[in-house]
Design goal:
The chain has seven helices and nine strands. The chain is an alpha/beta fold and 218 residues long. The chain folds into two domains: 123 residues, PvuII Endonuclease, Chain A; 44 residues, no CATH class. The strands form three sheets. Strands 3-5-6-9 form a four-stranded mixed β-sheet. A three-stranded antiparallel β-sheet has the order 4-8-7. A hairpin with a 4-residue loop joins strand 5 and strand 6. The longest helix has 17 residues. The radius of gyration is 19 Å and the shape is elongated. The mean pLDDT is 92.
Length: 218
């Protein structure tokens, strides 16, 4: 009888998985330089390890997240350039967060020419709560503007200056929502595009220092 998967258990499994991978040589990854291929390998392997022990819902392609029952998505990125992409749903995601939590694996890949295998040294694993998945610079600035007495017009002008991907009507709606409920500080850097580009520099730097971003490894 499998146990029910919970977020704390998922985090525990991520820590154990990272330790196991350090001693595993993978022939299929030897010489592979495509980060997407490495990421897919690691995501699928971790999910198989979790589902072998726990009851959990299948990954949702509709929602675009790996553990829909926990509202958690896996992100795998190289330490050389810690970033990845995610589906664009609304410009509001950059201000108020993606709407789900992230489990971020940061790896260094090493090839062994003698054994013709590759080892993934997972140098960082961080769990980012959904409330902290907004854009770092944007959320800090907006919260500061509200705190300093800025009004709806100020907020809307700032969002337009930042080229937030939304029309004027939606920007006004977002500005009104910011005035009503200022965003919490996010720890992602999110580029403007029709597919968000997420960068994890702040996640790596702040993991363990703020409650919304847990450091699981090292």
């Amino acid at each position: 009888m499998k146990s029910t998967l919970t977020t704390p258990r998922l985090c525990e499994e991520a820590t154990a998985f990272a330790k196991r991978e350090l001693s595993h040589g993978e022939a299929a990854l030897f010489g592979v330089t495509d980060g997407k291929a490495v990421g897919t390998y690691l995501e699928q392997k971790f999910r198989r390890a979790v589902t072998a022990k726990y009851e959990c819902a299948p990954a949702s392609s509709a929602k675009g997240i790996d553990f829909p029952d926990l509202n958690v998505d896996i992100k795998v990125t190289s330490a050389k350039q810690p970033q990845s992409s995610c589906p664009f749903k609304s410009a509001r995601q950059k201000v108020f967060g993606l709407g789900y939590s992230l489990l971020v694996f940061v790896y260094e890949k090493k090839d062994d020419a003698r054994s013709r295998t590759a080892t993934l040294n997972i140098v960082n694993v961080a769990f980012v709560d959904a409330s902290a998945t907004g854009d770092y610079t944007l959320t800090r600035r907006l919260a500061g503007m509200v705190r300093d007495g800025g009004n709806e017009e100020d907020i809307a002008a700032y969002l337009q200056d930042r080229a937030l991907p939304a029309d004027e009507v939606e920007i006004r709606r977002i500005a009104r929502a910011v005035m009503k409920t200022p965003p919490k500080i996010g720890y992602l850097t999110i580029s403007n595009a029709l597919q968000w580009r997420l960068q994890y520099g702040h996640v790596i730097a702040e993991a363990g220092a703020v409650p919304e971003v847990q450091r699981l490894v090292p």
